[in-house]
Please model this.
Amino acid sequence: MTDRSKRMEPLGPGVTVSNSSTGRSPRGNDVEDVSRAAAGDTHAFERLYRKHVGRIHALALRMMNGDEAEEITQDVFVRCWEKLGTFRGESQFSTWLHRVAINVILARRAKHATRRSRFIEDEVAIDTAPAKPGHGDVTLDFEGAIQKLPEGARQIFMLHDVEGYRHKEIGEMLGITSGTSKAQLHRARMLLRRHIER
Model:
């Protein structure tokens, strides 16, 4: 097995990759790169990192405070590196990595607040987000409104409407009922609509 610490350089806090790009396999071949990375090939892991880091960072930005997104992204890839041996190829690597990311994000959120407190926050927060004038950039306004949602509502909105999870899956991930997930999603949509229509 290749020594994982050999010829490494940091990409950011907690994540290191090879500083050489020799032995490159086709960019789209995750299966081969995963197999090589699991055997200790840091070049293969670097390719996986560079291919998927944008999507993971975007997920972290939407589900957490923007100040933490970079650190969370690095934590996800550290966890990925540690767990690569458990990937069995039963789903696409991107799907498996996304699940790893969700688990890391949920663990981080659990450190910030108790599970129940996420779902009883005041709706006043979104009312403080200034609405853009009609000629402004609606996309940026919408992103800003999402960030102002109470944490529980924002989390479920992102998992359901953006990431495509079902209420039952969300309930299992968060330890809540499907009914609570549905109620929080409705709350998020209503708050967003109220903000955008101002």
Summary: Residues 42-63 form the longest helix (22 residues). The first strand starts at residue 8 and ends at 12. Confidence is low (pLDDT under 50) at residues 1-28, 131-139. Residues 1-112 form a domain with the Rna Polymerase Sigma Factor; Chain: A fold (CATH 1.10.1740.10).
